[in-house]
């Protein structure tokens, strides 16, 4: 994908769902191609229309032919790339992973200081990377991974509403918050973090490897993507008024000062709920409780700025 006579300085796999982010990915493709060529980055572009397609692509490629594997989209696009890579290839030989933000939230990209396609392509061109922890979680006997966060309860309900408004960007999550706030429901939680038991009625749990969720919501302000720990944000039952007052603080990270919100760091967690709750790893509606989580310190490398 280079001009005649040009010699690329690197070659990447570029995977994108053209419908991601309300067709934002599709709109960005011509400009991204142009910038990659301008930076002498050769690429094989794969368009996907369902999550299993990413798995098929990554399983079939010859990894040694590429210097990087890049997803253009949001947190969900990165989630599918990450899981396919760790499932099908030797983790000791993985090339760096990259994100070109083009989704609704782009939460994880914020911790890499990537706020635009230009930022991402500059980072790839400079080959600047940083190690990133990966959180492994179970579904029966199967294993999956995430790098941003995994929520359940109120946050999952919010995300389900947000998917109905794909063209509104991260504002779709704000719509979801307001809608679900008036239909609050609680569930019984039993969670063990590094041997410490937390139990009782619960509103939401968010297991955070990085700081942001839903775009600009600073869910875990002290989280670090390379410290080998997750930050579990645990919200006990709230009144609607309490929730209304606290929600704006999410954008500054000051919500964690509320007495009904706990933040606990850990390396492992076992989570059970009654009734079972749907899970939301990296913005994707996938799986249910119970689940077991384990942090894998600095398991992959991502391009950053």
Structural class category:
alpha+beta
Termini, distance in Å? 25 Å
Number of strands: 15
What share of residues are in beta strands?
25-35%
Keywords:
305 residues, alpha+beta, Rossmann fold, Tumour Suppressor Smad4, six-stranded antiparallel sheet, five-stranded antiparallel sheet, 8 helices, 28% helix, 32% strand
Sum this structure up briefly.
By secondary structure, this protein is an alpha+beta fold.
Textual characterization of the structure:
Helix 1 crosses helix 5, helix 2 packs parallel to helix 3 (75-88) and helix 6 (154-162) packs across helix 7. This protein has two domains: 10-127, 3-Layer(aba) Sandwich (Rossmann fold); 145-299, Tumour Suppressor Smad4 (Sandwich). It starts with 9 loop residues before the first strand and ends with a strand. It has eight helices and 15 strands. The mean pLDDT is 89. 28% of the residues lie in helices and 32% in strands. The chain is α+β, with helices and mostly antiparallel strands and 305 residues long. Helix 1 links the parallel strand 1 (10-16) and strand 2. It has a six-stranded antiparallel beta sheet with strand order 6-5-15-13-8-9.
